[in-house]
Amino acid sequence: MTYTAMTDLSYANPDQNGAFVGLDNFRHLVRNDPIFWHSFWLTIRFVLVAVGLEFVFGFAIAWLIWRFVERQRLLTTLFLVPMMLAPVAVGLIWRLLLQGDFGMVTHYLHKVGLLSQSSAVFSSPSLVMPTIIAIDVWQWTPFVTLIILAGLMSLPKPPFEAATMDGAGPWRQFVDILLPLLRPIIALVLLLRAIDAFKEFDKVFILTGGGPGTISELLSIYAYRVNFKNWDLGYGAAVAFMVYLVVLIMCSVFYKAVYWKSAGAAGR
Question: Are 56 and 140 in contact (CB under 8 A)?
């Protein structure tokens, strides 16, 4: 992929037969491609909002289950259902539910007045991305819940018992004991979800194909369009390489945030 990104290979243009062009593709990508930057920042916003909501809801649900539910096995099994569905299946299900003419969810949105009779969710530019984010949150919040719940169930009891004896209230125990102990688990679940969300393709492709226009064209959809619709493989490889580069940077940042701080705490 790296070498291809440095060529002008294109199956749509017979004059571009794979000649080496160095970093020209990357220079054009960074300097002269507004669609790339639109897709890039759209993907960043999608990751921040979707993963942020999944973490907040997942952490809250896991904490409530940990504190107040005694028989957790049946509940956690039910939570597995959305995340066990293939992304393509999720996209097809919600595409039917939100279909403009006969979708069941669309019907009730029209009925309660949340959506006008003349509009559909996936044809409204203001509703497309919030809907995609909501579907992603529906599918992946259970994953965050299960990981956080496993971390909560593995926490040692002595620190909490000692804090109770010292007069620390629930809030101080939550901030000073529970969150620091869960920090590696939190970093892990955020990293996994951020990487997966950044390369999100299946659901968005099934639901909107990146439309209407380029309203929901995430970076992975843009890379697909350049490579397999325009057949501009050299430039498309440069786009794909940028996706890989951003994921690599995310992994590096999370690794340093977790393990460098842990090493510093151990040294003290």
Answer: no
